[in-house]
């Protein structure tokens, strides 16, 4: 039952896309650029949810070199569409990342992130939305 939901539910495209990268070495530029995101999606609770920024954020005299995200509660997702969050929509991430980041980011900080950093933080965030069944499927050697 769970497998059928994974294969036909909202995570089907994500798992199909992930499986295509796991089964063979990346050959195209798109596949090479997706590989770090796939590693982030496999992130589990025993691994760090911290991303070291490629381009540090500067706030006055303070420089932010790394951002840690924690799993959001449903209340922290308010005002953002789940489909937009799953698709890593920039506006949706601008609403939610400040609520779950440490040090706390502002919407302005998120708007000023390097796009590569936003993608990596979005990948960490996306891993929070995946059910355990999907995560275990991604971690299985046959995937």
TrEMBL record:
Cite the InterPro entries for this sequence: Phage_tail_E/E
Family matches, as Pfam families: Phage_TAC_7
**Which superkingdom heads the taxonomic lineage of this protein's source?**
Bacteria
What is the protein's given name? Phage protein
């Amino acid at each position: 039952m769970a497998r059928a939901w994974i294969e036909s539910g909202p995570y089907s495209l994500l798992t199909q896309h992930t499986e295509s990268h796991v089964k063979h070495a990346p050959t195209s530029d798109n596949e090479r650029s997706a590989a770090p995101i796939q590693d982030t999606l496999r992130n589990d609770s025993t691994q760090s949810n911290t991303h070291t920024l490629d381009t540090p954020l500067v706030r006055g005299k303070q420089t932010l070199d790394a951002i840690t995200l924690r799993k959001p509660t449903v209340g922290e997702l308010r005002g953002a569409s789940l489909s937009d969050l799953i698709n890593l929509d920039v506006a949706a991430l601008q609403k939610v990342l400040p609520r779950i980041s440490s040090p706390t980011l502002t919407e302005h900080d998120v708007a000023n992130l390097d796009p590569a950093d936003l993608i990596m933080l979005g990948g960490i965030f996306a891993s929070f939305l995946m059910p355990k069944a999907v995560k275990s499927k991604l971690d299985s050697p046959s995937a």
